[in-house]
User: What shape does this take?
Amino acid sequence: MSDDATHLLEVAKAEHPWPRPPVWAVVAGAALAALLLVYPFVFPTAFAHHLMILVLLYALMAQSWNVVAGFSGQISLGQVIFFGIGAYSSSVLFVKFGLTPWFGLLVGMLFSALAAIAIGVPTLRLRGHYFAIATLLIGFGVQIVFQRWEWVGAASGLYIPIERTSPWFYLQFHRSKVPYYYLMLAAAALGYLLVWALRRSPFGFRLQALRDDPDAAASLGIAIARHKVLAFIISAGMMSVAGTFYGQYVLVLDPERLFAAELSILVLLMTVLGGSGTLWGPAVGAAILVPLSEYSRIWFGGSGRTVDLIIYGVLILLVCMWRPSGILSLFAERIRRRRVNP
Assistant: This one.
């Protein structure tokens, strides 16, 4: 490594690119946290609980995609692989062996990490659309495997038996959706806390350097392949957790749904809409698109699924034309202007 490159690396390490947040941001964050904690009591209907459970679930999945794409620059269309692995791991262990889904959650994260290594080592050397196409095709292949795997239910899927006793052991809550809500809130909060810490770590800085200019990052001595695989593993683990909670929430596993490429594309759209490479962009995208999808089905009946896809397309088109950096870039630009011209 040259002397100039070494000097640039030392300067980057010494700088602190993440200043303390302003007071208003801390107050807004505290207010949001309080609102999320009391949400089930402010909106007591089952539909309101179900809606927020889906928002939190998709926010976690979108953040998972954000780690591998928004921070390291690898556009993956196969994130659904890890979602399905997480759902099947916990559910199969429960159905076949009677093990608690809490243990299955850890096993699913392990299997997803191994799958991320098996997929990432040969494919993460690809760039741009080549990697996207590779992960998309691998996702189709995994879906076909599960559709023909009789031990896990094949194309008929897997049905999780209902257990009325020990709800926290079996992760089945039949009287209310509130426990599901708080479990999903905790999972999403931990995922976002992990990404918040990741962005401010040396590893996160190196990932963003890989995203912006891989060749320059390599000249600084950053191991490109290793960092990309590690980001892929972190992303896979987060996606697996979402899959585990989804399986215990719906109690029916369908390989056609769990490994659908549409799901990978949907979390991509959420992240791009909110702001790829930002901390809160995935959550903003999920908070917009999930209610839009659910309410369009209510308003338009069976045709609502088509309507929400049309609206998705229009929103993404508008964002790409006027705000390629996502909705959050509007607020970021205003904050910068206030700092320059207080």
